[in-house]
Design goal:
This is SnoaL-like domain-containing protein. The protein is of the alpha+beta class. It has one domain: Nuclear Transport Factor 2, Chain: A (Roll). Helix content is 30%, strand content 44%. The chain has 3 helices and 6 strands. The longest helix has 26 residues.
């Protein structure tokens, strides 16, 4: 096994933190309808793939449209992402996987529960890590339920 320098090891740690911030930023951008934050997470030529009727969004303009599609589908969402793994393929490329659970409010007030896995490709270009590709695999979307939503504190 080749001994890595302190600089290489530090770069990987910093890269892991930057990539983790992408995954968290995705949830924050979607859940708070912060389109500008959401768009900063993607490279201009990135792919955001949501099979099952939501669509494939390739390029930053289409990724912007994805937020309109999500807004038509749900009044609001709350995502929790876990089990995030990252594997590096060189200093500027990595693949990741994470699982997500979301509570999604319909426009009529009903709520659905959603489970999904995100398979990601990350690239560092011009010193910045961003999504190059995100594939969403939804495992289930429950029927809408009438539950009492609490007002934020």
């Amino acid at each position: 096994m080749t001994q890595r320098s302190i600089e290489e090891r530090l770069d990987e740690l910093e890269s892991r933190a930057a990539i983790a911030a992408l995954v968290a930023g995705y949830c924050e951008g979607v859940d708070h309808a912060n389109v500008e934050l959401f768009l900063r997470l993607w490279h201009e030529d990135a792919s955001y793939l949501i099979p099952g009727g939501r669509g494939d969004f390739v390029g930053i303009d289409r990724i912007r449209e994805s937020q309109e599609v999500i807004g038509r589908a749900w009044a609001s969402t709350k995502h929790w992402t876990t089990n995030h793994t990252i594997a590096f393929d060189g200093p500027d490329r990595a693949a990741g996987r994470s699982d997500a659970f979301a509570v999604c409010e319909h426009h009529d007030g009903r709520v659905s529960l959603v489970s999904a896995t995100y398979d990601d490709e990350y690239e560092r270009r011009d010193g910045t890590w961003r999504f190059a590709k995100r594939l969403v695999t939804r495992w289930f979307v429950s029927d809408g339920q009438d539950i009492k939503l609490l007002e934020p504190f």
